[in-house]
Amino acid sequence: MSDALGIAVVGCGTVGGGVVEALLRHRDRLAQRAGRPLQLRHIVVRDRHKPREPFVPRELLTDSLAPVLQDAAVQVVVELIGGTTAAREVVLSSLAAGKHVVTANKALLAEAGPDIFEAARRAERTVCFEAAVAGGVPIIRALGESLAANQITAIQGILNGTSNYILTAMAERGLPYAQALEEAQAHGYAEADPSLDVDGSDAAHKLAILAQIAFGVIARPQDITRQGIDQLHPMDIRFAQELGYTIKLLAEAWTRSDPQHPDGPRGVALHVAPVLLRHTDLLAQVRGAYNAIAVYGDIVGETLYQGPGAGRGPTTSSVLADLIDLAVGRAQRTFAAARLWSRADRGFVLDPPEQVQSRFYLRLLVADKPGVLADIARILAQHTISISSVVQHEAPEGDGEPVPLVIVTHYATTGHFLAAVEQINRLPTVATPAVYYSMGD
Amino acid sequence: MSDALGIAVVGCGTVGGGVVEALLRHRDRLAQRAGRPLQLRHIVVRDRHKPREPFVPRELLTDSLAPVLQDAAVQVVVELIGGTTAAREVVLSSLAAGKHVVTANKALLAEAGPDIFEAARRAERTVCFEAAVAGGVPIIRALGESLAANQITAIQGILNGTSNYILTAMAERGLPYAQALEEAQAHGYAEADPSLDVDGSDAAHKLAILAQIAFGVIARPQDITRQGIDQLHPMDIRFAQELGYTIKLLAEAWTRSDPQHPDGPRGVALHVAPVLLRHTDLLAQVRGAYNAIAVYGDIVGETLYQGPGAGRGPTTSSVLADLIDLAVGRAQRTFAAARLWSRADRGFVLDPPEQVQSRFYLRLLVADKPGVLADIARILAQHTISISSVVQHEAPEGDGEPVPLVIVTHYATTGHFLAAVEQINRLPTVATPAVYYSMGD
């Protein structure tokens, strides 16, 4: 058996603790799978004196990165502290000291991918990040290796388990948003401050990483339009169900070729938003805190990957897969071949989201008067948007309250649709600003 | 850019033609992903003069393997002729001549895995086979790389698209088996002789390969009990639906530790059979000719992989992924580390299927007389099997025909259940032999 792969783990919380435990408990199994021992040499923590889980070897604890960087036997630093400031420093100084890096930090990659990967190439070291997107779901390897022969044409992902848990509770048990969120927090899925989960930011970080692998585009978080689930009204979940759809928070990437310039750069549009999926769509069936990603490749067609999106076990599994790949020598070859976050032009540009074609769900609260539907239909027609279906239920006789009106459109350009909505919102018969979502089909 | 990877494709039918087309059409893309050109040098066919698709370069056609073996610039032979006689010869002589092998041939690996992998190790060459199981679904990489840190504890797979197409048509549109099969044939999913698809043999071959990767067991096809869908009665599909279940043809592997000998070898039982899955189970939602595999790992939990299980595009995608892995140098490292079909003991033995614990669906046609249910319940109780639910619908008054009686049991040992069934079949009130399936929960 060859020499051990020396490892330092930085951060010993939920995920770090899981990695430490697995490295010690499954030592023989991991050595067998990796062809050499995976040797844990240091655990870097902020406070060495804080109580730790019983399996954490006190003698490996340190509160400074310096001994890690100076230890020539450490070949890999596993960054599991999260955040983007200290984590960035850990990653860059580890690479500069000649260590490979394994990280689960999606925010760091989404924000500083170009710097980190450039530093890694300069140092001739490898950065692995299977755990950064979708926890235990091996979507990084799927895109980068299994589907490597394909040009990816679209990605649709449920990338935030907290939001999916909330949506499932709202749809299946009729809970209002606030109560579903409380339940997610009680189960430990949602953070004390869940805003990055429910406003779509977390999913946008992950989408930026997938878009880099699949299309070579560098999407900064602010390039990705996003809409969360925090404003989602139970009424829209019910209307969607009535129409045969389920609402899911999706991170989506859609490519488009320009028929005028078939050989020019292709556009790819990215967004995170609640989307109506047909009940029979596989992503519509994904329940609770799971993640799932549907990937469309030009040779393979559609493939789908699903599993637990967060938590100790799933994230640990992905971190260990990266460590085994480094020990075997696969990761280094993948890293060199993929040239991620480099200047290599892969022929894609980011499309402005207004150009994306979609069908739309539009829900209004309107006065129960003659001519209202006619006005709305006229505005849509002026923007060349045609109507696929309308739902308006009979209102209680003469109570004068605004009534919900739901319109599903045929395919339309997002920009046209938004212009129509703006005009519809100015109608005196429309009581509150229109609510709209795109349809996933 | 480094030297080209020289390739010979053996067989130019549906899959071979797809690989040839993609190698030529996506030459630049593949070279970019692989870091070096993938150069098609020979296409070996039985009849050089047969008409071919227009993209097939006539000058590369040959009807003999000899020029391939003699061409030092050929580094990889892609075996796509199927069957086990000529294909075995192609694979073994290619390895002996120092070529790597990529194959989509599940029957060959299931039957001759030990010989082929031993020959590859002797020749210090690599055998890749992502396309051999589940077409475009990257399950080989998932088990071998992404989940490498886990001990797999169970696998449940829909591994035969033809059968799943037929079951979907029977369940959703009420078609009888024969008509659903005809439709599958008309769509090109089923072969002219579909017996290996519908009797479970094809799925058993694929399960043998997955079990080798996950557990290190060498299961010959005859070691895997199998039951196909060719005897499935629409009545049982309807009863299953009434109980909240969907019938799927599953290939399953279940591990068991012996509580008496926790450190002894663990048992793994393999079978292919129609199984009742709860409607909410993700595998129950897989429709049409798709494949899907749920994998349970001791660290990650459950992950699921789905996609098209056969056909030109999906199989081509997986063959090309293997070629890129060989060009990048990943495949060689994976092959060396995995030591598949070797004598390396991974601590698992094949369990006799009688020992597997399961819940069972039992459907009888019984005389509509007093005491029938009492007799059956008594026999089950004698074999320590308790009943979870019973369905017997009111019979048309006095027409004297036998009536269906459905019993769902709690967990029972397969051996006990089969002994009870044998005894039940001997009751004079039981009209035809009992029909039974296991439950997937």
Features:
homodimer; 441 residues; alpha/beta; Rossmann fold; Dihydrodipicolinate Reductase, domain 2; Alpha-Beta Plaits; twelve-stranded mixed beta sheet; six-stranded parallel beta sheet; elongated
The number of helical elements of chain A comes to 15
End-to-end C-alpha gap of chain A: 53 Å
Shape of chain A: elongated
Strand content of chain A: 25-35%
Specify the oligomeric state. Answer: homodimer
Structure description:
Chains A, B: Its EC number is 1.1.1.3. The structure is a homodimer of 441-residue chains. Chain A is α/β, with parallel strands linked by helices and 441 residues long. Chain A has 3 domains: 124 residues, NAD(P)-binding Rossmann-like Domain (Rossmann fold), CATH 3.40.50.720; 180 residues, Dihydrodipicolinate Reductase, domain 2, CATH 3.30.360; 84 residues, 2-Layer Sandwich (Alpha-Beta Plaits), CATH 3.30.70.260. Helices cover 37% and strands 25% of the residues of chain A. In chain A, helix 1 crosses helix 12. The model of chain A has no long low-confidence stretch (mean pLDDT 94). The interface between A and B is large, with 54 and 54 residues. Strand 12 of chain A pairs antiparallel with strand 12 of chain B.
